[in-house]
Design brief:
The structure is a homodimer of 292-residue chains.
Chain A (H helix, E strand, L loop, with lengths): L2 H13 L2 H8 L3 H15 L4 E4 L4 E4 L1 H28 L3 E5 L1 H17 L6 E5 L2 H9 L5 E6 L8 E16 L9 E2 L8 E5 L4 H12 L5 E6 L2 H9 L5 E4 L8 E6 L6 E9 L6 H14 L1
Parallel strand pairs in A: 3-4, 3-5, 7-11, 8-9
Antiparallel strand pairs in A: 1-2, 5-12, 6-10, 6-11, 6-12
Chain A binds a DNA duplex (30 and 30 nucleotides) through helix 3.
DNA sequence: TGACATTATAAAATATTTTTATAGTAGCTG
DNA sequence: CAGCTACTATAAAAATATTTTATAATGTCA
């Protein structure tokens, strides 16, 4: 069976229009008709109902079922392509969210260079959702991801290598600056400067606000720790961050004393189906040795 | 890309011999040669090394990686075939291990008949390992499985619907027959009649013997509860079973008082990719209503 | 009714896959 | 070392499969 037919079929389900699918793939319209017929013959079941009365195309249960598998098959193929390309170019495509890259990558870079691995590493920056997607379709071989729960995804192996608590950072002249430790509930009336919502930090932060029953005043959001730190230094607000961050001069770090203290968990993640090359195993070993 | 090529490739990895693979598929030998070449061109990488000096065929890393995906793709296709066939025939292929079938199926059969579902259910008997495999490649749409931990498999959804504790069963004239409750550690010197090793029961049993640091005397194993019960009635030994079993007249049931008491968990399991038909949803609903 | 949008069909053209026939390479054996 | 065996590669031809072109069919809608 030709996988092209599955691609046609999937797109037909998207577009629900034979002619448009033909255009989409740059082929003639009968090509799509015959491809769908081939599939229907192969699986011995009607896949779509061409209801020209209501000008609609509906997918039969068989069709929906096949679509599931088609998606999976096409993704698998795509993954294979990416993955093998990385292999051939002797490259490790490593996904890194900016915060993790800033803190962890410099730590291992010297070692990587020494073991002549650095030149084979191609870093790909991105948010955690993006990176997870890129991992699944093979664009990356591995990724470092942050989370507040141990990662557990179908088709991905997550290998935890570090944990960091979150802290409260306040400006040097802030009323709380003398405190060493603090309960989260004491921050009820503070102004916050936080990361953008897509960051893992917010999941942890939201968990604490929910637990302590208050709606925080978030006066500003950024995706740059330096920016956040500068605003904290100027008493624009306080922030909630881990210590894997460059601390500014005019900022004070407070420990949280709450019973539930979310942690920032960093894991190295790769596909369950991915066979680690010697270089990749070396990279894993270095990370475990230096970062754990 | 033609999936046939992937099948040829997978078999080549198995057999490591082009000509034999050709025989296997009933095609000529150059067919395999060209198929592999096609794949190598498509993925831009050598997949196998034809080492005629050492009379060997080795798989390159790219080849191994592709083999992973090929396996997955071919299984997915196979699943689609089975699954759609069941759909077309309007049949629910339901996997049932014998013990579960005996206890649970009669309970729902009347309801199934009333809702005209019974005629659409095709039961497939088998051990839990077998059933899991059959589920994954689409031979069955659903299965009831027993386990002592909540089931958690990649690609399968497990929907727990019942739990039963395990009990100790002893003959009516056995010294322990007067006891209502007992600690497992008290059974250190008893003779046991148990299920064959493949049964879930043994995982629970082994856990308890390990926890209590003794090697049990297993005098006989069977895969038939009635047989086990009869032997218990005759004081050949005692047994460790749930209460989802036909109790014999001359057998007494004792509760276990241990802190850790494994439970027999029954779940209905189906593929994550499986789209439930109305009939299948109906079946699920009946099971939850009657069995939960 | 006629223009339009859509899918189906048949025949021809192309592309792909397989076969047949044969060559090449190396091991093994007498 | 010649000749046989086992294995894979290659080229040309044959067989299949897919796509295109051209056109039909069906129903909408103004």
């Amino acid at each position: 069976m030709n996988t092209k037919d599955l691609a046609y079929f999937k797109e037909l389900i998207n577009q629900k229009n034979f002619s448009k699918v033909a255009d989409f793939f740059g082929v003639s319209q009968p090509t799509i008709t015959t491809a769908i017929k081939r599939l229907e013959a192969e699986f011995g079941s009607q896949l779509v109902i061409r209801d020209r009365v209501h000008h609609e195309l509906t997918i039969t249960p068989s069709g929906q079922q096949l679509a599931e598998h088609a998606t999976s098959i096409l993704r698998e193929l795509d993954t294979a392509h990416h993955e093998i390309q990385n292999l051939v170019q002797n490259q490790i495509a490593l996904g890194l969210p900016p915060i993790i890259e800033n803190y962890y990558f410099p730590k291992i870079a010297a070692q990587l260079k020494q073991q002549r691995l650095l030149r084979h590493i191609l870093t790909v920056e991105g948010g955690s959702v993006e990176l997870r997607k890129g991992l699944l379709d093979g664009q990356m071989d591995m990724a470092l991801l942050g989370s507040i729960e141990p990662l557990s995804y179908q088709n991905l192996i997550a290998d935890e290598f570090d944990r960091h608590p979150f802290y409260i950072y306040v400006g040097k002249t802030h009323p709380l600056a003398d405190r060493k430790r603090i309960f989260f509930s004491e921050l009820r009336h503070e102004d916050f400067v936080l990361f953008e919502n897509s960051f893992v930090h917010n999941q942890a932060f939201n968990r604490l606000t929910r637990r302590n029953h208050f709606r925080p005043d978030v006066v500003f959001r950024s995706n740059d720790t330096h920016m956040i730190m500068k605003l904290v230094a100027q008493n624009v607000g306080i922030t909630y961050l881990t210590d894997i961050v460059d601390q500014q001069a005019d900022v004070v770090r407070l420990e949280l004393m709450d019973e539930e203290r979310p942690e920032f968990i960093t894991s190295i993640v790769y596909r369950t189906t991915h066979i680690l090359t010697p270089a990749q195993q070396q990279l894993l070993a270095i990370m475990h040795r230096i970062l754990a």
